[in-house]
Design brief:
The complex is a heterotrimer of chains A (120), B (106) and C (730).
Chain A (H helix, E strand, L loop, with lengths): L1 H8 L4 E3 L2 E4 L3 E2 L5 E7 L9 E8 L6 E7 L6 E7 L5 E9 L4 E10 L10
Parallel strand pairs in A: 1-9, 3-9
Antiparallel strand pairs in A: 2-4, 4-7, 5-6, 5-8, 8-9
Chain B lengths: L3 E4 L9 E8 L21 E8 L2 E8 L8 E7 L4 E9 L3 E9 L3
Antiparallel strand pairs in B: 1-2, 2-5, 3-4, 3-6, 6-7
Chain C lengths: L14 H9 L19 E3 L2 E3 L5 E4 L9 H13 L6 E4 L3 H6 L19 H23 L6 E4 L2 E4 L4 E4 H9 L29 H6 L14 E7 L6 E5 L10 E7 L3 E6 L2 H10 L2 E4 L8 H12 L5 E6 L2 H6 L3 E9 L11 E7 L2 E7 L3 H12 L6 E6 L13 H11 L6 E4 L2 H6 L7 E9 L5 E10 L3 H4 L1 H6 L26 E7 L14 H18 L4 H6 L6 H14 L10 E9 L2 E11 L5 E12 L6 H21 L4 E2 L2 E2 L17 E6 L15 H16 L14 E2 L1
Parallel strand pairs in C: 3-4, 8-18, 16-17, 20-21, 24-27, 24-28
Antiparallel strand pairs in C: 1-2, 2-3, 5-6, 6-7, 8-11, 9-12, 10-11, 13-21, 14-19, 15-16, 15-18, 19-20, 22-23, 23-24, 25-26
Classes of the chains: A mainly beta (120), B mainly beta (106), C alpha+beta (730).
């Protein structure tokens, strides 16, 4: 996931804060996990969120979704649903109009993964 | 279910912040699964979504295999005047679906 | 698994905190083993609460379902704690609490025979840490080094000054201390155990025997209503419509509700009224394509898989196909194993109360956190507005861990009646029809011999359903489409590895997944794999003209622990001496869940070959460590009740896309009079790995009996249950 993140940020530092990622802390099987990402931003021409990237640490491919907001968006918030292959940390990284990057993470436990121990 | 369903609020005031929902039927086949015989099932996903309002971009998304089947997207729009909302999904195998809705702002 | 988070903030004595922390789950009117909260009783740490009267409350994360794991875990904690066992009770922390405290109690999952073996280290450290802190508190109170103190049964003494105190008096001060570093704690050598390792009576036994134990099915809450449900009997089908008007006037009926896309429920004042109304409710289903599936179509599909060119390889060495092609002689056999239902005595149930501010569920569950996850998803509420209260189970066997369908249903019903507690209790018929079935499987085994009747190659081709493809697809995806769990007991390594080395071996699985939802039935895939492997080993021995035990020995030089349990049962049954007149013997061995197990049985068969009496089974297990030998013996015997009932009497057949067996008249279970005497040899050999108890032995009874049947009659039985051959267990 780190190399994917670097590609998205161009190597710029990513600070914790400004972003709120919401995901349930426990899911049964990870087939469909609802999430919301919100960034507190005035969303003006001078001060807005350019993009938000959602990434996972353990899925076969790290990227979940990358979104961009247009000038009509009004609010830097969106929701969708992701698959989670296993218990892991999910990251939301926001790129702001001033070029800075901010992130939030949530640890999600897939309770079914305890069911069968370490098979693979 | 129809291929695409969008949810747009009915009576909206100018300047109001409204929530839009866009749902489309699609298997979002990840490309990581195999058949019972061990053959890889090819990837078949929606890769892009966009929503415009009066021709201007509101929200767009790049989707990857982790997105759940029948992707649901919820996002926001600052309403201005009555105008058309255009929702478009594109993906593998030439998938290209557009749904339109009129946002009445009064 | 070595890190433990002892949350310092939680040690502060405050009646609000203690009341809140200890009261959850304790204000409810059930569970004599739950301690009543006394205001201001501190916990020494997350694992141990000590009351002023020296009562010890051990927090247990796993679930009690009759397997005695709660007692075993409490013994491990009490051993390190050095408290008085007669003062020990247990308590379940809630999943909500676990989340709030950063999962200090770790996994709640009770399945895979892992309750003790995967948690013993950290629960022992929890008990030891509490002991260290209590001693430190006394040391500080007396101004002496802790090393000068001794403790026995919760009484702390200082030899030189003659001072003496108890845990109850030191608990409040201990709670304020910093916990020791988990890794630095020295655990006791099991050879020095005084509480663990002993055959102590199970906690909660008296309540269970006297009927005071409250199960989910017994739960009564103020203002509670009762519901029962019917889901589309054809798996994958949908609910089309129902005519509520026909039943809403019936006695006691409050609501008739759609539950999701696939089920309809009736809510009434009493469960009986709900059931009567549901029985009378006209319902239309959209069955879908699966209505065309039957046991015959499934069997045909599986049979084709036995010869399919492609299959997932689970274990191989050398080149079995070549060795078999070159063999001087070969034998081949096809075995089959049916769908089976868990059929716990207590049908599926959950009680839910929903408001937009809080969703609470009371449920017998093998994994409180899975239940919690289901509540989050079904209620749509955030975690801090949800809670699950665990109740001891009237049987789990694998139905109530990975599958929380009844929780989801209860919440969806409760959401339609906000503020009212709704107890959803399935009928027995619903429980039988909406199971998560042991997967159906066939197996073709081929063995090749050279001219001297030495085994040169073995091919075991499984054809049948994968559990994980349905339940944990991510694991199957990671393995390139293969289900590694299909090879339990014959795998090429790990907790279920094979106990033989063959010169050329191929074990592969042609995956064929019918629409019937699979699940983890006690023992899971070792049940059929033990029959397939251990019965075919007898067939090979017979073809080679050798004794089954001597034949096996040739392939077990690399598996001393397998050999040890096999030799133990052979010796006890008197394998090298003639059996009593009219009796015949069989044996089997397997490694599963990191335990090594074997069984030898003695049976007699009447002259028609249709009546079988199992006189005696000798079972041996080497689980590494034995926390409660008496409990292990009971688990072994219980596993044979389950396994032999399955062998003789149990199958679920499919007709018109649905399961046919809907109650115990067509899905029978053995009775006390049929139960053989079980002699247990518990032979823990230590080492770095702890093995499980709940499941491993279940798999060896059936092949031992089948092998004995051949020696009695010359007939090889290759499909189960035996009732299908007209055979009865007497």
């Amino acid at each position: 996931m780190q190399s994917t993140l670097r590609e998205l940020t161009g190597g710029a530092p990513v600070q914790r804060g400004r972003v709120k990622l919401q995901l349930p802390p426990l899911v049964e099987n990870g087939n469909s996990v609802a999430f919301t990402v919100a960034v507190d931003s005035p969303m003006t021409a001078d001060d807005h969120v350019r993009a938000i990237h959602v990434l996972t640490e353990q899925n076969p491919q790290p990227n979940v979704m990358s979104v961009r907001f247009g000038p009509r968006a009004g609010k830097a918030q969106f929701s969708s649903r992701t698959r989670l292959a296993d218990s892991q940390t999910v990251h939301a990284v926001a790129e702001l109009s001033d070029g800075s990057f901010w992130s939030d993470t949530v640890d999600v436990v897939v309770t079914l993964s305890a069911c069968i121990g370490d098979l693979v | 279910m129809a291929e695409a369903i969008v949810s747009v609020p009915a009576a909206v005031k100018s300047g109001e912040l409204i929530e839009l929902k866009a749902l489309i039927r699609h298997p979002m086949e990840t490309g990581f699964r195999h058949t019972q015989n061990g053959e890889r099932i090819p990837r078949n996903i929606i890769t892009e979504f966009s929503c415009t309002y009066a021709g201007e971009p509101v929200f767009s998304a790049k989707l990857y295999p982790s997105v759940t089947a029948n992707p649901l997207l919820t996002f926001f729009l600052r309403a201005a005047t009555t105008a058309e909302l255009v929702f478009r999904w594109r993906g593998d195998n030439g998938f290209d679906v557009t749904e339109r809705a009129l946002l009445r702002v009064g | 698994m070595d890190t433990i988070d002892f949350n310092r903030r939680s040690f502060l004595v405050s009646s609000a905190m203690a009341g809140g922390g200890l009261a959850i789950g304790l204000q409810l009117p059930f569970g004599a083993t739950s301690a009543q909260a006394a205001g201001g009783t501190p916990e020494v740490n997350a694992w141990v609460v000590i009351k002023p009267d020296d009562t010890v409350v051990v927090r247990v994360a796993r679930s009690e379902m009759g397997q005695g794991t709660i007692t075993g875990l409490a013994q491990l904690v009490a051993e390190e704690l050095e408290c008085d066992w007669s003062k020990v009770t247990t308590e379940y922390p809630t999943p909500g609490e676990n989340l709030r405290r950063k999962r200090v109690w770790q996994s709640f999952s009770t399945g895979g025979s892992r309750g003790i073996r995967t948690s013993h280290d950290y629960v022992r450290r929890g008990g030891a840490a509490a002991r260290i802190m209590l001693l430190q508190a006394a040391a500080q109170a007396w101004g002496v080094p802790a090393s000068e103190l001794a403790v026995d049964k919760g009484v702390i003494t200082h030899a030189t000054s003659g001072r003496r105190t108890t845990y109850g008096r030191m608990a409040a001060a201990a709670a304020k201390l910093a916990p020791p570093e988990a890794k630095s704690i020295q655990l006791k050598d099991p050879k020095a155990w005084k509480i663990a390792g002993k055959p102590l009576q199970r906690l909660g036994l008296v309540e269970k025997v006297t009927g005071r134990q409250i199960y989910g099915a017994d739960l009564k809450l103020p203002g509670m209503v009762n519901a029962t449900i019917r889901e589309c009997p054809v798996f994958g089908g949908k609910l089309k419509s129902y005519d509520a008007a026909k039943v809403s006037g019936m006695k006691g009926v409050k609501q008739v509700l759609r539950v999701g896309d696939t089920a309809v429920a009736v809510v009434a004042d009493t469960w009986w009224h709900a059931k009567k109304a549901l029985d009378s409710l006209p319902v239309e289903w959209d069955y879908g394509d699966n209505v065309r599936v039957s046991s015959a179509t499934i069997a045909a599909d599986l049979k084709a898989g036995l010869d399919a060119p492609k299959a997932f390889v689970g274990n191989q060495s050398g080149n079995a196909p070549e060795a078999l092609a070159a063999a001087a002689s070969k034998i081949e056999a096809v075995y089959s194993y049916p769908y089976q239902n868990h059929a716990p005595m207590e049908p599926m149930n959950a009680t839910a109360r929903y408001t937009p501010e809080k969703c609470e569920v009371w449920v017998p569950t093998q994994d409180g956190e899975s239940s919690f996850a289901a509540v989050l998803a079904a209620s749509g509420l955030p975690a801090d507005k949800c809670e699950v209260y665990k109740i001891d189970l009237g049987g789990g066997f694998g139905r109530r861990g990975a599958f929380q369908d009844y929780v989801r249903q209860a919440v969806l019903i409760a959401k339609q009646m906000p503020g009212t507690p709704v107890k959803l209790l399935w009928t027995r018929e619903e429980d039988m029809r909406q199971g998560r079935y042991h997967p159906v499987m066939q197996c073709k085994l081929t063995g090749g011999f050279d001219a001297d009747k030495r085994l040169t190659g073995l091919h075991m081709r499984l054809s049948g359903q994968s559990i994980l493809a349905s339940v944990r697809p991510a694991v199957v995806e990671k393995a390139g489409g293969k289900d590694p769990l299909s090879f339990q007991g014959v795998a090429d390594g790990g907790e279920h590895s094979i106990g033989y080395s063959f010169p050329n071996l191929l074990i592969d699985h042609a995956m064929r997944n019918p629409h019937v939802p699979p699940g983890f039935w006690r023992g899971v895939n070792i049940n059929q794999n033990a029959i397939f492997m251990e019965c075919f080993m007898d067939e090979l021995a017979h073809a080679a003209g050798q004794d089954p035990l001597a034949f096996r020995r040739q392939f077990m030089s690399r598996y001393p622990r397998n050999l040890a349990v096999l030799d133990a049962v052979a010796e006890r049954i008197g394998w090298d001496k003639p059996a009593p007149a009219g009796r015949h013997r069989g044996l089997a061995q397997m490694k599963a869940f990191d335990s090594f197990v074997a069984a030898a049985c003695e049976i007699s068969v009447d002259s028609t070959g249709k009546k079988v009496k199992v006189h005696r089974i000798v079972a041996a297990t080497d689980p590494g460590y034995a926390v409660n030998p008496a409990q292990i013996e009971r688990q072994i015997a219980g596993s044979f009740v389950y396994g032999l009932s399955a062998l003789f009497m149990q199958e679920c057949t499919v007709k018109d896309g649905r399961i046919e067996q809907d109650n115990f008249h067509t899905y029978n279970s053995m009775r006390i009079a049929q139960m053989p005497k079980v002699e247990c040899i518990v032979m823990p050999s230590g080492g770095p790995v702890w093995g499980g108890i709940g499941e491993p032995t279940i798999c060896v009874a059936a092949p031992a009996v089948l092998n004995a049947y051949f020696r009695a009659t010359g007939n090889r039985l290759r499909s189960v249950p035996l009732k299908n051959h007209g055979i009865e267990l007497v």
